[in-house]
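ok, trying the design again with the full structure, not the truncated one.
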């Protein structure tokens, strides 16, 4: 069965669609049949936002009467095509991205979705967007906070994310 398509839809992840609300905001739609938890995702987004600006900015939770669905409202990001920029610029953006991601790690946050699993549709690095301000992260749905999962799980996720970051760096600079 084809997933529901929403008016002003921008994208669709494994569980949710994202729609344009305005020139500055988008809403991640949480319908009745979603497998995601809106409260958990909002908490993780706010947590990451308090550390630095790497993750898209949380705005609010709201109910959309027209769609009959809950929404996580966040800043709207307009991605750029990184291939239009010199390798030296990409290296600089990657260095800043790495530092900001390491700051999130040190604060007890792992994104867990830098590299899209091969069994899911979409591009390999759909959750990393180049913007005029540099690289940004979206979709913290499967992210984890160390305080919620404990040290052993957190360290395993952290190691995997470091490996994904290395792969992304080679892709981003070398493409």
């Amino acid at each position: 069965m084809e997933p529901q398509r929403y008016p002003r839809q921008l994208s669709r992840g494994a569980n949710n669609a994202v729609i344009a609300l305005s020139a500055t905001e988008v809403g991640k739609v949480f319908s009745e049949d979603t497998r995601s938890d809106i409260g958990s995702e909002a908490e993780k987004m706010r947590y990451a936002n308090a550390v630095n600006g790497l993750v898209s900015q949380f705005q609010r939770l709201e109910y959309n009467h027209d769609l009959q669905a809950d929404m996580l409202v966040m800043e709207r990001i307009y991605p750029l095509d990184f291939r239009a920029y010199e390798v030296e610029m990409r290296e600089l953006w990657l260095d800043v991205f790495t530092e900001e991601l390491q700051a999130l790690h040190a604060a007890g946050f792992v994104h867990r979705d830098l590299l899209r699993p091969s069994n899911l549709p979409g591009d390999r690095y759909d959750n990393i967007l180049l913007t005029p301000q540099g690289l940004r992260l979206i979709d913290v749905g499967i992210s984890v906070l160390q305080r919620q999962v404990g040290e052993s799980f957190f360290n395993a996720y952290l190691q995997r994310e470091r490996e994904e970051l290395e792969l992304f760096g080679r892709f981003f600079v070398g493409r």
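Keeping the full-length input from now on. Strands lie at 9-12, 17-20, 25-30, 58-64, 69-75, 109-110, 128-131, 134-137, 144-145.
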